Each structure stands twice: as C-alpha cells, then as structure tokens.
Amino acid sequence: LLERMGNLALLRGDADTAVAGYQRGLGIARAEALETGDLSLDDAIGTFSRKLGSALMHKGDITGGEGVMREALEIT
Predict the structure, then answer these.
(1) Rounded Cα–Cα distance for residues 16 and 34 (Å)
(2) How does DSSP classify residue 37?
(3) DSSP state for residue 1 in the 8-state scheme
(4) Sign (positive/negative) of CA torsion 35, 15, 70, 64?
(5) Is the confidence at residue 76, as pLDDT, over 80?
(6) CA-to-CA separations, 71 to 11, 45, 48, in angstroms, rounded
(7) DSSP label of 61
(8) What is the pLDDT of residue 72?
C-alpha cells in the first residue's frame, strides 16, 4: 500500500507524499529484514530504495537521492 501511495502521488506531481510513502515502506522493510533475517525482503528494500531515490530527485534533492541509491546498492 505504501508503494502504491507513492506511485499515485508521483503521478499527480506530489513528490513530498511520494517520498513519505517510500521512506515509510523502506523503513518497515529494513526493520523486518533485520529482525527476521529474511533475505526475501532484499527485493522490497531494493524497490523502495530505487523509488525513494527517484522521488527525492523529482523533489530536487539530488544528493539525498544519490545517497539512498548508494545505500541500496550496498545492501543488495
């Protein structure tokens, strides 16, 4: 649902809401992966990171977007 929220927000040009949705989704996926050790969550972490980086760039935060993408590459 958080991914869908972010996608819809970007479609209507609301990068702030998209960033909030993707950040929350990424946080939940990270916490769950650390708690359970479930490697299948790497896909979710990668997807949320990619979309968050893109949304940050749409928002004008190039440095933040790059940082999220670099972190995602390290994790996955």
Answers:
(1) 27
(2) -
(3) -
(4) negative
(5) no
(6) 25, 10, 12
(7) -
(8) 81
Whole-angstrom distance, CA of residue 52 vs CA of residue 65: 7
CA 21 to CA 2: how far, in whole Å? 5
Q: Which amino acid is at 6?
A: G
Residue identified by tokens 């649902």 is: 1
Q: Which residue has the higher pLDDT, 35 or 73?
A: 35
For residue range 51-63, list pLDDT tens digits in order. 999 999 999 999 9
* Half-sphere exposure (Cβ direction) of 51: Cα atoms closer than 13 Å: 28
pLDDT band at 73 (very low <50, low <70, confident <90, very high): confident
Pairwise CA distance, residues 52 & 49, whole Å: 5
